[in-house]
Design goal:
The protein has 331 residues and is of the alpha/beta class. Helices cover 34% and strands 17% of the residues. Strand 1, helix 1 and strand 2 form a beta-alpha-beta unit. The protein is built from 9 helices and 14 strands. The longest helix is centred in the middle third of the chain and has 20 residues. The radius of gyration is 21 Å and the shape is elongated. The strands form 4 sheets. A 7-stranded parallel β-sheet has the order 3-2-1-4-5-6-11, sandwiched between helices. Strands 12-9-14 form a 3-stranded mixed β-sheet. Helix 5 packs antiparallel against helix 6.
């Protein structure tokens, strides 16, 4: 979509205002995307669940709110009626307590199908359909399976593991299919592990490191597996508290690496693919420009919080590195 760049003293109201529909408008990404779109001069129509406890975060914004379930075809048609662009962020990352796997699958997969079908019906006038996928479609990190190489770029073969990753891979196929059959002007964003505010601070702790190791200790197929890993786990459990910061390195002295994504940066990526012609038909990773080293982050946080840092030597190295050079060069 062309950005609004009215000349001189023209106000936003005097420009050719265009409307963007956002599914999951009250979510972690949606809540950051809405103000980013408004700041660019777009009108926003946001989809929220009728009983969404996060609905209140949208109250301070001048947007149109549509209530309904993303799986409802009529709701999706109403949401997209007359809009110029769509950013589909609505999805569940994990299965909430009390929800069945089939419902989780329906929300993520059938919900995406309903939105894409509504968009396809307006393919001739819709300028851009942005689908927010996930780096879970890759063998991201090496804790589930071994990647072919790192950093992982958009050309890496997809090997989704787990139900969430499967739904994301299926949704990408759905979007690609409707692009081919209806000429939808689609773009995809694949965020790394996405956080807002202080949420990311828990990713540099002993508890987080132990969680990765425990998931790998009996899984020879994953990149973190090692015959001595059980001993490392036992030593770490006895020597440190779960909330301690963890400066973890492998036996060669190489630090563990992690490239998460800030929700504000992912929102910015969504705006970029809405506006840039080079984004059509492309997928883009979204993460920090370079991965953070666990030892450097632990030292940084310890100096500011007073938390204890535990030095850990592991027989394996965790590398979660999302290559964002394509996004930086094209959009």
């Amino acid at each position: 979509m062309a950005s609004r760049s009215g000349g001189g003293s023209g106000s936003v109201g005097e420009r050719c205002m265009k409307t963007v529909a956002v599914t999951g408008a009250a979510g972690r990404l949606g809540g950051n995307l809405v103000p980013a779109l408004l700041a660019r001069g777009y009108a926003v129509r946001g989809l929220v669940l009728p009983d969404d406890p996060k609905r209140g975060k949208l109250d301070r914004f001048d947007i149109e709110v549509v209530e309904g379930d993303v799986r409802d075809e009529a709701v999706c048609r109403r949401l997209l009626d007359g809009v110029d662009g769509v950013v589909h962020t609505a999805n569940l990352v994990g299965i909430p307590a009390g929800m069945g796997r089939d419902t989780f699958f329906d929300i993520n997969v059938k919900g995406t199908l309903a939105v894409v079908e509504a968009a396809a019906a307006r393919a001739d006038s819709l300028e851009r359909f942005v689908h927010v996928s996930s780096d879970a479609v890759y063998p991201m990190g090496n804790h589930d399976s071994r990647p072919d190489y790192t950093p992982i770029d958009e050309g890496h073969p997809k090997r989704p593991i787990g139900l969430y990753a499967l739904t994301k891979a299926l949704n990408e196929q759905t979007v690609d299919s409707f692009r081919a059959s209806h000429g939808l002007q689609t773009s995809m964003i694949r965020p790394a592990g996405m956080f807002a505010g202080a949420e990311v601070l828990g990713r540099w702790t002993v508890g987080f490191v132990l969680g990765l190791m425990r998931g790998a200790v009996n899984n020879p197929r994953c990149g973190l597996y090692h015959p001595d890993l059980a001993d490392t786990i036992a030593t770490l459990e006895s020597a440190a508290a779960p909330d301690d910061l963890c400066a973890v390195r492998d036996t060669e002295g190489r630090p563990w690496l992690y490239s998460p994504a800030d929700a504000r940066d992912v929102a910015h990526a969504c705006v970029c693919v809405l506006e840039h012609p080079a984004a059509v038909g492309e997928a883009f990773n979204a993460a920090v420009p370079q991965p953070f080293a666990f030892d450097e982050v632990a030292e940084y946080l310890a100096a500011r919080t007073g938390q204890r840092v535990h030095e850990c030597v592991a027989p394996v190295r965790w590398v979660y590195w999302s290559d964002v050079r394509k996004a930086r060069s094209l959009i």
